[in-house]
Design brief:
By secondary structure, the protein is α/β, with parallel strands linked by helices. It is built from 18 helices and 14 strands. The chain is globular and about 75 Å long.
């Protein structure tokens, strides 16, 4: 039988069926016997002794979908007319569009929105560059920038192929925080060219969200842009993952009764996300960490450290983690760990190795779609399990972080997103789950919890003000920090 069905492989199958008793049931049985999950069944037409129906079916993949179509065609009196991949159909023509906030129905409308009236607004900004935040979209726009070099788990697929992801990111910004975001994909992997391109477009945006840029270039690019721009720059693959992972941990230790300072943590995967998670953990007080890359645990005795070929960021971790200088792969160094964090790839952790973790073990296996160890395999050994997948409890998903982080930063016009603001965001996410609601399968709020973005925005804005990172009070544009309903009213 095929694996689990999913909406990402959903089909709309148009079937012509003989109009006689029991035929629809036979078609449904054929779909079920082939392992498909039926959603809706819609009648399109009835004529000539036949019904035409659109049947929505979740499948386990392209090959499985073809098997289901074949199974329907084998039913006497049924014939598949057409199939539509619902995911591909959603993306036809792109997923986002621009729309005007004000009508253009009269000469007066035109004279104010465009020439000649617009000249007065231009000159107001010319006299005071800061007024761009008052009189243009800059105050509520974010550029989602990628070179397509590290897209999801697909790798280096190029800028054009990365566009559906960047459009999706823009949808999430708008849906959860009322922020207008625009996909900017660049046909270069050269850090100098990427930095120059983002610097050149920055006047039109209130913030920059870097996305799916491969390590280690992403670290340099972010650092350089943070130094050169006066608007927030945030590499979500790093910091979004780190913030949400810390939020999950803050609640997990409440359940287990452990202290952050006492934890032994094993992090597997030292790409952009792994580096950021390890750093934010240290900032939160988790000092005892072992980090592994594809060659195993980092330490100063590894050959690539001794011969100088180990990259600089990894050299730092080799020197500042793994105090016992353990050697080997993830399964070799997991003894005595309280928390396993997977940010690498499928099946890298043998389930039986988890038995050597401490009591009340926590397993965050976040490789997507296939985690380092499945929740079913980890269940006998771990008290708390989290993944990056939406079909299991405790999904660690960046959408819990980045909309609210940028909302809060834009609300107070922060020039940067500081480490303290990230920590505040993590606490804001964690606090959404009340103490009396905490349980092993609920340590992190749902991505559809509409309270999250506002709570994160409030926490980030308050922290920015407290540390002097804010340049505006947050009320000059007619809405309260974090109050996306007010902002959406402005957009209506």
């Amino acid at each position: 039988m095929p694996g689990a069905t999913s909406a990402q492989y959903s089909l709309t199958i148009r079937v012509e069926i003989d109009h006689r008793p029991g035929m629809l049931g036979k078609v449904a049985s054929a779909i079920g016997d082939a392992g498909g999950t039926i959603g809706s069944v819609d009648l399109v037409s009835l004529s000539g002794g036949h019904t035409l129906r659109d049947i929505t079916v979740d499948t386990a993949g392209d090959e499985h979908g073809a098997q289901i179509v074949a199974a329907i065609d084998q039913v006497e009196g049924a014939h598949v007319i057409d199939t539509t991949d619902r995911t591909l159909r959603m993306h036809v023509g792109g997923k986002i569009e621009q729309h005007n906030k004000h009508p253009l129905k009269t000469r007066d409308d035109l004279s104010m929105a465009y020439t000649p009236g617009v000249a007065r607004v231009c000159m107001a900004i010319h006299a005071d560059r800061d007024k761009a935040f008052q009189y243009t979209i800059k105050r509520n726009t974010v550029a989602v920038v990628s070179d397509g070099s590290a897209v999801l788990g697909l790798g280096d697929i190029g800028p054009e192929a990365s566009m559906p992801v960047m459009e999706g990111k823009c949808m999430l910004f708008k849906e959860f925080a009322g922020i207008d975001a625009f996909p900017i994909v660049l046909n270069t992997k050269d850090p100098d060219e990427i930095v120059a391109a983002v610097e050149a477009i920055s006047p039109g945006f209130g913030g920059i969200n870097l996305e799916d840029i491969s390590a280690p270039r992403c670290f340099e690019i972010e650092d350089r842009l943070k130094a050169s721009l006066d608007i927030p720059v945030f590499h979500d693959d790093q910091h979004g993952t780190a913030v949400v992972t810390l939020a999950a941990l803050l609640n997990a230790v409440k359940l287990t009764g452990k202290r952050l300072e006492d934890l032994n943590v094993l992090i597997v995967g030292l790409g952009a996300a792994g580096v950021a998670v390890a750093k934010i953990f240290r900032e939160a007080g988790v000092a005892n960490q072992i980090v592994c890359d594809s060659k195993g645990a980092l330490h100063p005795g590894r050959p690539d450290y001794e011969d100088g070929s180990m990259p600089g960021i990894k050299r730092w971790f080799a020197e500042h983690t793994n105090p016992e200088r353990r050697t080997g792969g993830p399964a070799d160094v997991i003894d005595g760990a309280d928390l396993f964090v997977g940010l690498s790839g499928a099946r890298v952790m043998p389930p039986e190795a988890l038995a050597r973790m401490n009591d009340d073990a926590m397993v965050f296996a976040m490789a997507n779609p296939n985690p380092e160890v499945t929740p079913e395999e980890a269940a006998p050994y771990a008290r708390i399990i989290a993944t990056g997948r939406s079909d299991y409890p405790n999904q660690i998903n960046n959408v819990l972080c980045f909309p609210g982080v940028f909302r809060g930063a834009l609300d107070v016009r922060a020039r940067s997103i500081t480490e303290e603001m990230k920590m505040a965001a993590a606490r804001g996410i964690a606090e959404i789950v009340a103490d009396d609601e905490l349980r092993e399968d609920y340590i992190i709020p749902s991505v559809f919890n509409r309270d999250v973005a506002a709570a994160v925005a409030d926490a980030v804005a308050a922290q920015a003000k407290e540390q002097g990172a804010a340049t505006a009070a947050g009320d000059e544009v007619g809405y309260a920090p974090g109050d996306t309903s007010d902002f959406r009213a402005l957009d209506a």
